[in-house]
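User: Show me a protein chain along with its predicted structure.
Assistant: Here is one chain, sequence first, then structure tokens.
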Amino acid sequence: MSVSVNGTNGLTFNDATTQNTSAFYGGLAMRNRIINGAMVIDQRNAGASVALTDGLYYVDRWKSSISQTSKLTGQQSSTAPAGFVKSLSATVSTAFTPGAGDYAGLVQPIEGNNVADLGFGAAGASTVTLSFWVRSSVTGTYSVALHNSASDRSYVTTYTINAANTWEQKTVTIAGDTSGTWLTTNGVGITAYFALGMGSTYGGATAGTWNASLKLAATGQTQWVSTSGATFYITGVQLEKGSTATSFDYRPYGTELMLCQRYFYKNFPATAGVAVAGGYWFNTTYPIGTITFPVSMRTAPTFSVSATSDFNVLIPAGTASISSFVMSNAGTLSGRLDLTAATGTSGQGNVIQTANTSAYFQLSAEL
């Protein structure tokens, strides 16, 4: 990469193959619009297998799309190609032949703020390139689609898994859509959809063209879900501006974790006596506290805990048990915890803490 100084605009990148500022700034420009494309973050399940239901996030930023509940299992896997340590896997636990309205796939919705510069929906929309590593026990033609939040614009293209149980790298290039509405806010900007089985309602698309409807698979899609015990692995997923796939945009682990925590955060200290929040007793049975989020979340999150009995309130005399535990008045940076407990002293400070090793709370602002 050669760099020269332009008197008007500052730095100019002259090498056509590296005209991306992330190459110069060490990835800070977020060349890859996919978050957790290397599947290294799994806050929810820590690699454990889960039964997949429609819309279930199981590895951070990745969710299942399936009309037939609990017929697939999925997890973070250590099966990975050279240069990667993790992948996202799916397994057919109960095979089924897709009916007209059936669908199955792995999905990442991308926040509009992160794809605004692509200019979709207007003249001059940028071409994008999607690259990834994939491995399956079932060979054949598979589909991958991009669609908008309104599900009235979609593009389907195909790739071929040539050899069973072998890692293969795939690259597809997609001309930007000059029509439709594509959000550039904190809503869903673009959804990437990897199809694993598809009925005629959302399948049967002509590959390589934009559709004015929701199509998720092309004619000839391999019905991977029809093979009992079939496996599918994917990692190194990258969506970037331009018509050429570049090397995978590795970000520091801490950076990738923070990007994921904008959408989901799980506090799981696995020890008792860890402070969750501090506050004061509004009255003798109503302790409140303030919880500060690790990053600015996409929107005010929902809050849940493992169980109210997994937490207590530290008071001078020991601890007070909690009978109800909710978060109210949340913003994107913090929220107020409202508890019912017995018994404290009005106006006295408190510390809300874990009571055992099973305690956790989680915040969700998923798309």
